[in-house]
Amino acid sequence: MPPAEAEISWETRGDATAATPLLFVPPLGRGRRSWEPQVAVLEGAHRCVLFDPRGIGRSKDVACDSYSAGTIAEDARDVLDRSGVNRAHVVGWSLGAAAATLLALHHPERVASLTLLTPWTRIDPHLALAFGIMRDLVTHASAESAEIATLWLILSREAVNAAGEQLLIEARSDVTNPGYPTSGTIRDYLDSALAFDVSDRLRALSMPTLVIGGAEDRLVDVAHARATAAAIPGACLHVLEGTGATHALPVERADEVNALIRTFVESHEASDAVPTT
Asked: Which PANTHER family is this protein grouped with (predicted)?
């Protein structure tokens, strides 16, 4: 179903007078709630645009032949259209970073700047094995077990220990939420992650770009963030280190991630990029 016909669920929060809105593109299997640690802080000075991709959250029932990073990119563009935004500072995390990259490649005129958290440009055997394990879990294990295993993989030891039993309680609650994606939806998105390869196209990007990686990321090794930054002309790279420098950077290291986004965006504000409405 083309995004123009789909009822993608989206919202805007924050300062409607800000020169250039921020569009947040969520990670694999997650919706707009995943950005709460960022939006709660940044909405004070910026208009923030958030959405649930097809198959997830309030967009769970939007029809789609096959879910992918490409469909998330289409949803992101559709949300820009629907919210009346000409250009946005686009922030993507994990598979959302892949989708944000596709949006920038296909519609560069809509992207004032690009911030990519824990990205990859193409799969290597190490990452393929990780995504393959996640796919097997989604296919053969219960939704609860797959969710808990994913949290164990992306979170730090310190975060898991601090959460204790609450981590299991919240995982069980999440998988029973009506907006939690089906196993088929997650498999589609994982297949897209496995197939993603823009390594020979990134040189075409010309917008200001910030790449953020975590030195302790067990899922997408920080080498992928380094390769992404090296492939995009003029891109800035920031690698967080130490406790919490995991695949869940926007959660575990929210204060630093928020500061990096804010500094980067405000240094590249485009005075001519304003909402169309």
From this structure: AB HYDROLASE-1 DOMAIN-CONTAINING PROTEIN (PTHR43433:SF5), HYDROLASE, ALPHA/BETA FOLD FAMILY PROTEIN (PTHR43433)
